[in-house]
Amino acid sequence: MTNISKGVLYASIALPADQGMPALTTAVNDLLRGFDASHARVLWSLKYHQRTVGHPDESDAHEIILPNVPVELGLPDSVLDNVKFAWQQITVETQGFMAFEAREGMEDED
Fold first, then answer.
1. What's this model's pTM, rounded to 2 decimal places?
2. For position 59, what pLDDT does the model report?
3. C-alpha span between 15 and 50 (Å, rounded)
4. Per-residue burial over 54-63, b = 16 or more CB atoms within 10 Å of its CB, e = otherwise
5. Which of 4, 13, 14, 35 could be joined to 20 by an S-S link, Cβ 3.0–4.6 Å?
6. Any idea where the domains of the chain sit in the sequence?
7. Which of 55, 50, 81 is nearest to 66 (CA)?
8. Could you give the maximum distance between any two Cα atoms of the chain, in Å?
């Protein structure tokens, strides 16, 4: 009986997407070649790339582009300002952003 290991691999690369995605694919394939070929495979994959963009008000009517989020442990308050701007554009509301109704059974807690 073969010992089967499972795991999660997170990888990133600081290259443009057209160079970085193939480089990551090659790296993962090289890593998998080090395991038993009959069991080494990627079951699921998610890939994305970040783009540098302008302020959200530079978007057209059918697209709302939010600025990049800083790669830090904490998020600056300006992130919510940008999300609120997008919410207002989509809902055409000026009030109620991040206003949540109490859930059943939660009204009595302070």
1. 0.42
2. 47
3. 10
4. eebeebeeee
5. 13
6. 9-49, 56-91
7. 55
8. 63
